[in-house]
């Protein structure tokens, strides 16, 4: 009886090994497929991040004085969008982290996927606080530049100063503005990279980038439609009924 049971045991053993090999093969195939999908997701996230980085690095390129105004007030940005969201030409860095904080509160899936979500939200609040301090420093520097322009530049045409001297002063102040724009762009880039690379996992980072791009597009489209509905701005120049139309592309 013992000897007769040995072949059955070996058949069962071989069958068990075949099942195990098949299971391991399927497991490895699924793992390889998941790895490829994760790599593809990572590549897409990096590609989207590079697009934002390219947008934020425009100020790094050699810039003529006349281009500083375009960086501060892009012609492609409607006035309402500039008034509500723009800070030195684009979103405030603290607003990027503020969007993440809002998403965590409004998205149960995002909040549940973050380990220690409460601690993470507290850390984000601290980062927002720190960024707002940096933004306030830049605002103060910008205010100082504006004061210098008002107090020191010779706007009075009758003032006896050479045009070359005046132009040199203007260029000097514009260089200061350009330096602040670069600093602001660096803060934006760092804030976005921090969210995507350090705080969120890949799937959450993808969700955030989709939300960020979607909100930007929604605000831009709403502002564009608002401008079309309202048309040109009219400004009264005196107490009389004289009204002068002004293109709404140029904020007053």
From TrEMBL:
InterPro entries: OCM_Kinase (IPR053293), TGA_domain (IPR025422). PROSITE patterns: DOG1 (PS51806). The keyword Protein biosynthesis does not apply. One of its GO terms (molecular function) is sequence-specific DNA binding. Keywords: Coiled coil. This is DOG1 domain-containing protein. Residues 13-229 form the DOG1 domain. Residues 24-51 form a coiled coil. GO terms for biological process: DNA-templated transcription. The keyword Coiled coil applies.
